[in-house]
């Protein structure tokens, strides 16, 4: 009996040992496989000549649409008598965006970086828009107010307000206020000013894939007073690095506003029509608004002679001045989301922003860094 009990014990011990060994082998195999899989995947994600990634990067097949909502001033007479401005939203005016990259030159046979030029072209999509781009005229005080505040010498063409079509407001070099200034809100973006980039391929370090080395031959800007504000960080927005997770941060350099912006991975979601694919939600709003670093990220873009814009606004004037366009403009999230509440209070009956609708976000596949929705 004792011999039988001892044999059973020995059998159980051997079985347990075999189980532990098999479990360890399985665990090691899984870890090795995961590392091997990620290593192979990351090599495929480098932007190299002839690769699938290069083809999709240089000529994206997925259509990108650009929607514009404009605000029409509806109480010109009352405003001249001291009333608060009343605005009416008009839109969307939808454009298909074609991102063209050309003059692509790789540095070596096995390149670590390469240069190219990029231009964006926009084509109006009437079937997705509220009306024709030459539809009802818009009344705007946008440029006249800015010039009045700057006390620039000028004379009005048609009184203190301008009347123009959505097309003229967005794209046309239309004489808005004075005969010496011709400007459209997005005129410089519609293929008229190619930007020259030099970026990393990601061959040696996949975390740097697509990150910018130079813009128009410069490794940093000379627009702002602070060195950190003049740094060129991140990609041009065509891609993000792989291996992302909740808490990750990524940066994009936006040439039209002369600055790099930070985006934060704050949540997870499922891909549209593919609930089996999990995506990360990146937001331009910091997860902790009380973080003192957020205040510095805004203050470092204050520039002597221009001051600091109100909270939630980005001053575009220093960037425009660097290209010879002296127009006072500011950028904000839709409906001034996250901005100083006094801005909204300065308007008559201006609707409150809705974070779910008006926040800026990007959906990214975390393992590959592919941007799927924005």
From TrEMBL:
It is found in: Cell membrane; Membrane, Caveola. The keyword Nucleotide-binding does not apply. GO terms for molecular function: scavenger receptor activity. Pfam families: CD36 (PF01130). It is a multi-pass membrane protein. GO terms for cellular component: caveola; cytoplasm. Its main location: membrane. The chain crosses the membrane at residues 12-33. Keywords: Cell membrane, Disulfide bond, Glycoprotein, Membrane, Receptor, Transmembrane, Transmembrane helix. Belongs to the CD36 family. This is Scavenger receptor class B member 1.
């Amino acid at each position: 009996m004792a011999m039988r009990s001892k044999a059973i014990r020995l059998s159980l011990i051997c079985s347990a040992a075999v189980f532990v060994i098999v479990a360890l082998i399985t665990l090691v195999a899984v870890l090795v496989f995961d590392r091997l899989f990620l290593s192979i995947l990351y090599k495929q994600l480098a932007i190299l000549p002839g690769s699938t990634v290069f083809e999709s990067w240089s000529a994206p097949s997925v259509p990108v649409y650009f929607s514009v909502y404009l605000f029409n001033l509806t109480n010109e007479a009352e405003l001249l008598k001291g009333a608060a401005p009343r605005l009416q939203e008009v839109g969307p005016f939808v454009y298909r965006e074609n991102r063209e990259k050309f003059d692509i030159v790789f540095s070596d046979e096995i390149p670590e970086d390469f240069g190219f030029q990029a231009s964006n072209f926009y084509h109006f999509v009437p079937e997705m828009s509220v009306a024709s781009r030459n539809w009802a005229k818009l009344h705007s005080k946008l440029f006249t107010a800015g010039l009045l505040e700057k006390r620039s010498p000028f004379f009005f063409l048609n009184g203190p307000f301008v009347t123009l079509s959505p097309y003229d407001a967005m794209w046309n070099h239309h004489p808005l206020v004075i005969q010496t200034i011709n400007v459209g809100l997005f005129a410089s973006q519609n293929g008229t000013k190619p930007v020259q980039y030099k970026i990393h391929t990601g061959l040696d370090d996949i975390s740097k894939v697509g990150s910018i080395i130079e813009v128009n031959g410069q490794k940093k800007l000379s627009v702002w007073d602070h060195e950190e504000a003049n740094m060129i960080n991140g990609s041009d927005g065509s891609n993000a690095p792989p291996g992302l997770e909740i808490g990750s941060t990524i940066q994009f350099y936006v040439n039209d506003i002369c600055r790099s912006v930070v985006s934060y991975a704050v949540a997870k979601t499922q891909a549209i029509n593919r609930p089996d694919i999990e995506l990360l939600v990146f937001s331009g709003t910091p997860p902790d608004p009380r973080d003192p670093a957020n205040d510095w990220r805004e203050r470092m873009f204050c520039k002597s002679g221009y001051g600091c814009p109100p909270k939630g606004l980005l001053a575009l004037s220093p960037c425009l001045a660097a290209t010879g366009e002296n127009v006072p403009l500011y950028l904000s999230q839709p409906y001034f989301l996250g901005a100083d509440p006094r801005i909204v209070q300065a308007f008559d009956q201006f609707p409150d922003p809705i974070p779910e609708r008006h926040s800026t976000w990007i959906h990214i596949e975390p393992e590959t860094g592919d941007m799927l929705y924005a």
